């Protein structure tokens, strides 16, 4: 049975959506080694099981609790993702969205809290957002269940969710390092999207580093990241590699928000 993971920032409505989309809990407990609640339920339309991941702002964890989501993505490799975002705080939420798109699995964006956004005079143009990100974007009010049926029917045909074609360009220097790391990863089977891993590695995501260490000799990969960092510095860029990747993402998000947000 396919596994679909629900991912998003804290307090965006994940649990509300989880409760609306699932018929029953299959499992409620804790994630291994942390005190964060783990919930798995069966989707009402029989499309698979839904996993409620802990709320995070980025895949790069700042604590062990926050590491659960990255750990899940790299170890369990779900078939599809639902990324729920708060429409009233779109700019902040999209940082995680970009990292999830790079993961490369079929993804549906749940644009939640539409009622809150509307009350604050914020209108999100979901058609343009859908077009730019290349994934289905569904406006929701998870608290009342509005829009949730549409998510279920999309997931019912998850084979029909278009593959993610989103690809952010990180500049020539970083792109060359990504390509070299991808090449090193090529012989490794059963790994999620290699470009995603390369980027997470270059961001020094400790969860991804530890996972790879348990599978392979990562010294060469680390060297490629270090060389990229030195190259950026030679170009007088006063940013670390993780900061550079983040700044490219933030620039993209700012220009995307200019396009899709109407503030009354
Ligand atoms: P989680 O932390 O992502 O699991 O978010 P929850 O589902 O626990 O929701 C956080 C709070 O937001 C709760 O008080 C929900 O009732 C509320 N909430 C969730 N979805 C919506 C929505 O679409 N509109 C409004 N106004 N409130 C919502
Ligand atoms: K909460
Ligand atoms: Mg929750």
TrEMBL record:
Residues that hold Mg(2+) 2 according to the record: 19-20
* Residues given in the record as GTP binding sites: 8-15, 33-37, 52-55, 112-115
Superkingdom field = Bacteria
Record domain FeoB-type G: where: 1-161
Where does the record place it? Cell membrane
- In which residues is Mg(2+) 1 bound? 22
Which protein family is it in? Answer: Belongs to the TRAFAC class TrmE-Era-EngA-EngB-Septin-like GTPase superfamily. FeoB GTPase (TC 9.A.8) family.
Q: What does the protein in this record do?
A: Probable transporter of a GTP-driven Fe(2+) uptake system.
Q: Quote the protein name from its UniProt record.
A: Ferrous iron transport protein B
Q: Which organism is it from?
A: Paenibacillus agri
The organism's lineage is:
Bacteria, Bacillati, Bacillota, Bacilli, Bacillales
Gene that encodes it: feoB
The shown range, given as first to last of full length, is 1 to 264 of 670
């Amino acid at each position: 049975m396919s596994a679909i993971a629900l991912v998003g920032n804290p307090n965006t409505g994940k649990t509300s959506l989880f409760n609306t989309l699932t018929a029953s809990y299959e499992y409620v407990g804790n994630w291994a080694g942390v005190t964060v609640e783990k919930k798995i339920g069966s989707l009402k339309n029989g499309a698979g099981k839904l996993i409620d991941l802990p709320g995070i702002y980025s895949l790069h964890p700042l604590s062990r609790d926050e590491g659960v989501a990255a750990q899940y993505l790299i170890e369990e490799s779900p078939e599809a993702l639902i990324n729920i975002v708060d429409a009233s705080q779109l700019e902040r939420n999209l940082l995680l969205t970009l990292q999830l798109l790079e993961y490369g699995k079929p993804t549906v964006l749940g644009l939640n809290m539409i009622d809150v956004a509307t009350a604050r005079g914020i209108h999100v143009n979901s058609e343009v957002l859908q077009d730019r990100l290349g994934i289905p974007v569904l406006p929701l009010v998870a608290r009342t269940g509005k829009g949730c049926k549409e998510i279920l029917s999309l997931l019912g045909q998850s084979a029909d969710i278009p593959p993610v074609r989103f690809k952010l360009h990180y500049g020539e220097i970083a792109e060359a390092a990504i390509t070299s790391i991808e090449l090193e990863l090529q012989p490794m089977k059963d790994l999620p999207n290699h470009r995603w891993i390369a980027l997470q590695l270059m961001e020094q995501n400790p969860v991804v580093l530890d996972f790879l260490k348990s599978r392979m000799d990562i010294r060469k990969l680390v060297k490629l990241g270090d060389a990229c960092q030195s190259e950026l510095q030679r170009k007088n860029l006063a940013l670390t590699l993780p900061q550079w990747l983040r700044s490219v993402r933030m620039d993209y998000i700012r220009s995307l928000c200019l396009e899709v947000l109407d503030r009354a």
